[in-house]
Write a structure and sequence with these properties.
The structure is a homodimer.
Chain A lengths: L3 E5 L3 H10 L5 E6 L10 E5 L5 H7 L3 E4 L6 H7 L4 E2 L3 H7 L2 H10 L7 E4 L2 H11 L3 E5 L9 E4 L5 H8 L5 E5 L3 E11 L5 E3 L3 E6 L2 E7 L8 H14 L4 E10 L2 E8 L9 H4 L4 H9 L13 E7 L5 H5 L4 E5 L9 E7 L7 H11 L13
């Protein structure tokens, strides 16, 4: 043992990976612009802003992974000349380009909403004709948490949409899927090809940012097998090692894949306390070549993001079965700066706990109108 | 928030405290002779070997605690001139002296085995007459993991026992209690006086060192109320803040207190995964003045110490529901260098998992003769 894992990125995902790695005597190093990042408390941060940074980072560890989905492929190519990266480059390249991603879903027969590539005003007009309205126009690369997107509801928005997103050159137009809810599935694949899957999370957003996840997703027993099947196809096709996330829409026609993230995911933070082995520990185990841990749920859980502004810790921790995770980030509107996990003994308490929490949080919790989850 | 907690000691207990503190954005500093100690990965270690060390340590944090039971009282006295220490000095002083400890148990009507103070060969002979044989002679101060003890089985051992332990000046002779098993109870008391208790652990030793703990202790439902009552008396009497451990013998006359430890305890390591809130997190919460977390068990658990020599991580992690905690200590006979937590979905698997583990561990696991737990 005593491996060192080098991680591209040094945000809260890296922080929680390193927290999981420490009891296994696995050290982490981080490649990150901001050396005062959330991961800094747990390992050496090598600045990505210096000329020698990447070489230093490559020399700092035995095996490599990432928490930053937009890790430059050029950096990866330099790294993989001498060291191994998990997940594989192809997974990263695919996730960085919505058109490649959709093509992979098609290839593996994973259902997606109808879509079309857009690279000109004319092709956008064509997409509106073919797919109908409303549709969502997205940049093929970049964009997250609702940024880089335009929802087209009428034909007279076509020029505005093109003016806003057109400069990105490569766009994708997607049919506006009518879905009852959004879920995500997270799975891990070991170096020996073993796959383990956590139960589906039901995800709720507020202004395009994840507000909270409920796990297991209510009434999801019938959805779980298809979701597991889809993510397993992706993992095996990509010869993937580590944790992969697949976001899905629940529609009347069944599950539609939205996008994949080649990394641990916000909708899997519940697993730190709620599963026997968390997404972070299993990712570290996979990258280090160790056997995977059990992904069973120990208790039904709700994970709530802390966005923009911190609540009072003493108010949060007074809630029954509450766990608090602060990322050591400064407050800023729309920024994920921590999360809370609720796992009361009696899961019927989850709704009332969320209501209590909604009163404490400085930023709204996206509960339904009747304040249920 | 953003409090810093200064901890006397920097071993694995400090390491696991700091691991629990980190998600709460609480930093730890450590006062320790060996700056390359297990806690070093998680916070500043201030050397106790330098002249300015203690003053530096006192300035390094807002509030103080300890993981080292033999923290010198003189250091505590200097500290408490300007800063608060949890647990209180009196708890530490009492736990450092077996005679004071027994006197406190007597005062609070917590049953103990008959005992007598010994400070001369004559008083040892007197104790043998009064208490009968066999008896255990122990130094009143110092000694742990079976060191500083002599089991007297016949009168002709009196001189040998006195020769070995007499130089310590202050000794205690205890009746050799016939007990069916040893259990321990761990509780935490907050700054508002709230007390929470984990279920009893059943502890098994090998050569005087804890081998493994089973939680909840089998057939302990009838014992739990008395144990909780005893530890609550201690906590309230001492106006204690933080985690306290009470070791008990199960005898035909009921529970007898053996000793208390004014700190998190090896027999509570299971709680990292097996309880909603671990002993480490609750200790940190109490010291920081935060509300306490739930001490409920999420699954029956066996915690096994790794003593002297590391097993292969990949063999341990292949066991269903196994968690591995390595302390980053070098291997040495009789030294606690890590622990393993087993918490399978089906608790009837615990025995078979322990049998598998016994084959993997380089150092014997103290299973019963039929290899059951």
């Amino acid at each position: 043992m005593n491996k060192t894992i080098g991680i591209f990125g040094g945000g809260q995902l890296g922080r929680m990976m390193a927290q999981a790695a420490l009891p296994l005597n696995i050290q982490c190093t981080f490649y990150e612009a901001d050396t005062d990042c959330p991961s800094a408390a747990l390992g050496q941060v090598i600045s990505s802003q210096t000329e020698q940074g990447l070489q230093q980072f490559i020399q700092s560890a035995d095996v490599f992974s990432l928490e930053f989905e937009n890790t430059p492929l050029a950096d990866v190519d330099l790294l993989t000349q001498s060291k191994a990266l998990h997940p594989p480059r192809q997974a990263l390249a695919t996730a960085q380009n919505r058109l490649m991603e959709k093509a992979l879903f098609d290839q593996l027969q994973i259902p997606v909403a109808p879509y079309q590539a857009v690279d000109s005003l004319a092709s956008l007009q064509q997409a509106v004709t073919t797919l109908g309205l409303p549709l969502v126009l997205k940049t093929a690369t970049g964009g997250y948490d609702g940024k880089g997107q335009f929802v087209l509801r009428s034909e007279d928005q076509i020029e505005q949409a093109w003016a806003e997103l057109g400069p990105a050159k490569s766009l994708i137009a997607e049919s506006f899927v009518t879905f009852s809810r959004e879920v995500s599935i997270i799975a891990v694949r070991g170096q020996d090809g073993e796959v383990k899957t956590w139960p589906l999370a039901e995800n709720h957003h507020h202004h395009g940012i994840l507000s909270h996840s409920i796990v297991p997703a209510p009434n999801s027993v019938d959805l779980q097998p298809a979701a597991q099947d889809y993510i397993t196809r992706l993992l095996n096709h990509l010869n993937y090692v580590g944790v992969l996330t697949l976001e899905l829409f629940v529609t009347e026609q069944g599950l539609f894949a939205n996008e994949m993230a080649p990394r641990v995911h916000n909708s899997g933070h519940w697993s730190i306390e709620g599963a026997v082995c968390s997404q972070f520990e299993n990712h570290i185990r996979a990258v280090a070549g160790l056997p995977l841990g059990s992904t069973e749920v120990v208790r039904p859980t709700v994970m709530i993001n802390i966005i923009g502004q911190y609540p009072k810790s003493e108010q949060v921790l007074a809630l029954n079965g509450a766990h608090l995770h602060l990322y050591n980030k400064t407050e800023r509107a729309g920024r994920k700066i921590g999360h809370i996990t609720l796992m009361p003994n009696d899961s019927s308490q989850l709704t009332s706990l969320c209501r209590q929490l909604a009163k404490i949080l400085p930023v709204p919790l996206a509960l339904s109108e009747d304040m249920t989850i």
